[in-house]
Amino acid sequence: MKAQSICIALLFVMLAACSPGSDLPELPPRGATAYRLDTADRVNIIVFGQETLSGLFTVNDSGLVSMPLIGAVPARDLTVEEFQGEIERRLADGYLVNPSVSVQIDAYRPIYVLGEVSSPGQFPYQPGMTVLTAVSIAGGFTYRAQEDYVSITRQNRGAPPTEARASRDTLVQPGDVINVFERFF
User: Fold this and answer.
1) Going by fewer Cβ within 10 Å, which terminus of the chain is more open, N or C?
2) 132, exposed or middle or buried, with CB in 10 Å at 0-12, 13-18, 19+?
3) Cβ-contact 168, 145 below 8 angstroms
4) How far apart are CA 70 and CA 55, in angstroms?
5) pLDDT tens-place string over residues 111-149
6) How many CB atoms are located within 10 Å of the residue 152 CB?
7) Nearest alpha carbon to residue 111 among 47, 175, 169, 182
8) pTM over 0.85
9) Domain 42-107, what fold?
């Protein structure tokens, strides 16, 4: 009887090791780096003294923001400060004398939550969001969800997207795709 109990326990351990996503590498911790703009970010650009040049603009699929006078300005992979400097440089090139520009992020690109959550879909990103808060916004875990970890597919600057395992308290980034796995038991 004791040998049978040990075999059953060993079987459960082996099955748990075969859980979906258990073979994914851990998501590496993210250091403190400046946020970089990308497609679907919405920015509020204020050109002081020039209301017709100011407003809300969205980074398009090509990573550009189309502005009056200066046309398409590259934004993808730039920090807010770098993007602001680029706009000032272009406006100073024959349009305005000493332009003063302010850029703030109005809305970050969305995150996506799929798998074993009550309402999978696209959701707005908020700074400081964790996997658990993202799952909560998606209606919470279903009764079949693997609640200990998820996978996050993340865009990496200049590299293909990577998928890695993440815990409930991992910080989410704009554009992340969070997949909540189904558990076996």
Assistant:
1) N
2) middle
3) no
4) 14
5) 999 999 999 999 999 999 999 999 999 999 999 999 999
6) 24
7) 175
8) no
9) wza like fold (3.30.1950)
So where are the chain's domains?
42-107, 109-185
Token digits of residue 13 = 């351990």
| Number of residues that this document lists for the chain | 185
Cα 115 to Cα 141: distance, rounded to the nearest angstrom? 9
Residue carrying the six token digits 């250091």: 31
Residue indicated by tokens 């300005």: 73
What are the pLDDT digits (tens) for 27-71?
Answer: 666 655 788 999 999 999 999 999 999 999 999 999 999 999 999
Beta strands in the chain (DSSP E): 42-47, 55-58, 64-67, 71-74, 101-107, 111-115, 121-123, 149-156, 159-167, 177-180
Burial category of 153 from C-beta neighbours within 10 Å (exposed 0-12, middle 13-18, buried 19 and up): middle
